[in-house]
Design brief:
homotetramer, 374 residues, alpha/beta, Rossmann fold, Dihydrodipicolinate Reductase, domain 2, 2 domains
């Protein structure tokens, strides 16, 4: 099988190239690029030297020849390649925000500054969080017309962390706060001041407080999950999302605060002026079990045992999402911590997982790497 | 004037030595240590070579001879030195948790595992956050009996970030969430697995979720601030505190979520599915002005102008606390970001500031260093 | 096939576990440990959670049951397991220094503080740098008695960098200087002050100047290579080796200065007060070609094209050794830069490569991973 | 006294602003910039907020009004400001390469691509390494016409490390190798790919092997030092210089290999296949004493005692140059390690030191900061 990768020279594209090169079902790779057509990808990424030597082709050529097309482009520039893929009856897996919203409510336009060019493409698109939408992905794949809106990195970590709580009705009516930290690769390959080594080494800070584009994506996902609990469309909780930049290369850590529904709270729990009581610990154990059960059959979600807290270093270079479950001392707020590698489960790995679902491959195919220990 | 530093070989002690060595009112320094008595401090910290060559003495000798005594010891082991200082009528500035609580409610015992050895010392102690307790510090100093309970690093950043909102009645009845990130020096000088370079480089994770000892200190401070707004003792908001470890040397970043009182909320603001409205921006500006006004005379608090977000890298090696003010898109939660150098304003610098207040020195004396740019 | 890993809980052991878990010829793994017998390895390395769950057994059990045994132990403690393996006719691959020297000259004793316990084991041992000793490894393997003395991390990078120059007679009579830098994982898993995050972050320094144990190993390898050029045993060049510690997790960079033989020097080249002349560039190209030719059939050595300089970041998590070739402006000193991942080609990866050679597997089996881009 | 800083927005300029703001003899500061005229420097460097609020002026205005002018510009663009300063009889301290060479031999043109615009300015210029040229600096200052060619960062570390050996005749006839590592601030403030966080984090590599512009500067300095030993102009040793980039913010570490003159070698010393002998240790001690004696009166050079090796982390944010002295096991090559903060002793701090020499201030004035411990 031949995989095309449009936008192969950005960080997500390069990670796709790395993962697909080791995928047992992929026989060859067509990397494509608008800016670097004709160059060899190993010249741009000398780590690939001798292993990935293909010359970069025009994006349309990749779309015309591959059996599956991945696009790692900025939002709003790749719809024509999706159209070609649809017409050829091959899957199109898009890592931009172009297919994350159906946009009946204008959310995409409001955050990305322009409406879709070819809105009707969304008839065949699906938000590609396999844990949430696996059956819809398969359905579209069966019809030979499927476009994947591969999730954003932050929404992946946030959604997997909150999913069981929201879908099982643990959440009360309060605001859910998602406080996240990302490694610097999340900013992409272009050198800009914020990601200049001396500016971000040895410093931590939030950015785009209350105005990051991943906020509506998280909010929409939470609403879909809350609807599962309600049994009918529901507005979903209010969401606050604060991304931070920390001096590391890979990883997204999300600390998620979910106010519990009355029935899930610990009665007469305690307060912050005393360490958590036994009752709080027991309730935490109960919710942890619910999480484990919820994700029982998911190959890439690990709900950590008591005593362990999710850390980005432990999912490094893998497609895992690690989740740990905690309660505040008052027993009324669920604190979930999730960790992913932003470039793998948060981007290229999830795209490969979507391909595996579409083609009916083992879902871990090409993604079986154990996280590096250091 | 002679300054004694007990526990001079730990990280906070070494930072005290660095700062006091450059203090214009300090003529000489007596570093003391239980474990390294007789050794020269420059042998333990070769960065001091040729500049701080004094041999380490017994703690009791420092307490007996200095004009002001700093103690950077674990909690519960230094009360006898405080007693000596009190008897000699000289100030004792303690960086442990020993004097942060009066402990009428047993908070110290509950979190630190044992009651005070000499409880009556608290008659002359004060929680040394100058921005909160400057007049009480001066009062005790005037009576020649003063023990400073120097604040914890996290509580300093959290308290300065929330102070104006709580004391001016902006906060509503909801839970305040303090989500913080610390550099690794916060873990101290002893080599342990969690702070082993390969274990914490390139990784981010929370630790002690819901059970960090700084939680009751933050909660108590918040209650004191809320009481200012109420005009009478008040319980203060419920608090959730989650510390994270990030791969950097210095700095504490706190992102603080404060639900606003009804009257401070933005009516018909918006939601997370749309970027913040103009009304939200205006209210943010109004609150920012309130913060600026609140801290107008504080030499070490910088409320950042619109467009800037607090970052630990910008307060590096200084005693500043940088604060930026934000609102969620819904206009009902105040998001305050505060950044300090954990070893300076979060420990040794604040201790020196307390000394300056006690002796009536210019409060920035010995602390005038501009933050390093990188 | 069953692989035993003795000392599986150290960093090199854990890296062996990671690599062997993905090896297509290995059906199962028996991790063993003296200190943690009975524990599950995923409890010590939670990154392995759900992927490597085996309980750690006694080392002797691993030696008795496996089809190939790896040992990642300190020097001088594992000879009995090698004996068991020899008796059972299975390969023993040792990552300590125990089989790197035949020690007829007492080099091992002089540097490691004691003589071998069972010296006769060296009859069946070979220094496992496949690029140097592949045929001898195969020879011993054919006889069903083979112990691999897996090379040290620094000697691997230094030896591969100097090999073509020494074996082809480019080197003159002067001292060869090996100036190397290592990531912190090279120091192992035990927390000690030198590898405590705040002590080594944002700092660079040499250590063990002129007295690192890898010096005699490098020197011996250089002599073996020089003997190839001479066609008979030769003393080999004098060697100076200076290791440095730099704040990164993985990687060893070696900058190697080799004085050229008279016939290889650029006549009337120039000096440091002028940029390198065209003649110097041409000679550099000639030597680069010689290097390429020398390593033509090696699957893991990449001689970089003109314009690229070896960097540790580009071999990260791979078994590659990248080499770039340069000359000084005076045209009389060859400067070779080599980069390896210290935990892969410098330890566990090379051990797996040795296993592949022994069993006649494709030499890249289980080691085909492309270096991570970041 | 008023100090002008032209090019105040680059990294060296910002460091000058930081240091001069704390200098007791400087009453006010005029920061100047071509690109950012009119902007406030605290907007570009928010770490200066509230402490350095001056608006940036045109460079000519700074040159016309200040009592001393610092220029931190690229080479070849600031000669007119030097001319103004000369005419006004005020010192001009230039951090570019413009005044590091008298260029009678065309070295500057060969490396910097063009000849000097106003060559005659060199009549009043001096290479500002105070340890080497202090008396010449004073001489020119006395004449009220003085231009300082402030040394490059690498040449500062290399020259101070080699100075005693070369000037006292320890060096033999062989090539001196300077193998250096720099933090990323050395690359300046402009975001480029090489200094993009994900490209340089967790990686080490050399750059500009044999062709870095600091090579001729090091070579010229070494020749000047060798001439002191010879008692007459001497060619100086051949020099090889290899800079490396390591993932840290500040610091330059130089490991310098100096072949000893016959008379300084250890007779029957040993070889790399045995640990250094006692005779080698004794000779090392002898040379260390010579170094200590040589630098006895230098306020910023610390020759470390036996057992300590120079490390960049220990001179962080100070004007110190730490030096440790070693020998190879063969007793014929002196290995000197020097460490400086590239932005302080390697740039802005040395510039301030030059100002202190010119005006007869205490040489440590404004530079008394003890290195930060972490």
């Amino acid at each position: 099988m031949i995989a095309g990768v449009i936008g192969a020279t950005g960080y997500a594209g390069a990670e796709l190239v790395r993962l697909l090169s080791g995928h047992p079902e992929i026989d060859s790779l067509i990397p494509a690029s608008v800016s670097f057509e004709g160059e060899r990808i190993e010249n741009l990424y000398p780590n690939f030297l001798g292993k990935v030597s293909a010359a970069l082709v025009k994006p349309e050529d990749a779309a015309a020849r591959a059996d599956v097309v991945f696009a790692a482009l900025p939002s709003g520039v790749g719809e024509s390649y999706a159209k070609t893929a649809l017409e050829r009856g091959i899957p199109f897996i898009d890592l931009s925000a172009d297919y994350r919203f159906d946009d009946d409510e204008g959310t995409f336009s409001a955050w990305y500054g322009k409406p879709y060019g070819v809105p009707e493409l969304r008839r065949w698109s699906v938000y590609g969080l396999p844990e949430l939408n696996r059956s819809r992905i398969r359905e579209l794949a069966a019809g030979k017309k499927v476009i994947i809106g591969n999730p954003g990195c932050y929404p992946t970590g946030a959604s997997l962390g909150a999913f069981p709580a929201l879908a099982r009705g643990l959440a009360g009516s309060g605001t859910v706060i998602v406080d996240s930290a990302s490694g610097v690769t999340g900013g992409g390959r272009e050198p800009v001041r914020s990601f200049h080594y001396p500016e971000c080494a040895d410093s931590t800070a939030p950015y785009k407080v209350s105005c990051h584009r991943h906020t509506p994506e998280i909010s929409r996902n939470f609403a879909a999950m809350a609807a599962m609990a309600a049994g009918s469309p529901a507005p979903g909780p209010a969401v606050i999302f604060t991304p931070h930049l920390v001096p590391m290369n890979r990883g997204i850590l999300s600390t998620i605060y979910i106010p519990l529904a009355e029935s899930w709270r610990v009665k007469s729990a305690g307060t912050a002026v005393r360490p958590p009581s036994k009752a709080v610990e027991e309730k935490t154990g109960e919710i942890r079990e619910l999480y484990r059960d919820f994700y029982r059959d998911e190959p890439f979600v690990r709900v950590l045992p008591a005593g362990l807290i999710a850390a980005t270093g432990r999912v490094r270079l893998s497609n895992f999402c690690d989740i740990s479950v905690h309660l505040d001392a008052g027993g009324s707020v669920l604190i979930v911590v999730s960790a992913i590698d932003n470039m793998v489960k948060g981007a290229a790995g999830q795209a490969v997982q979507n391909m595996n679902v579409i083609f009916g491959f083992d879902e871990t195919s090409g993604l079986a790497a154990i996280p590096a220990s250091f």
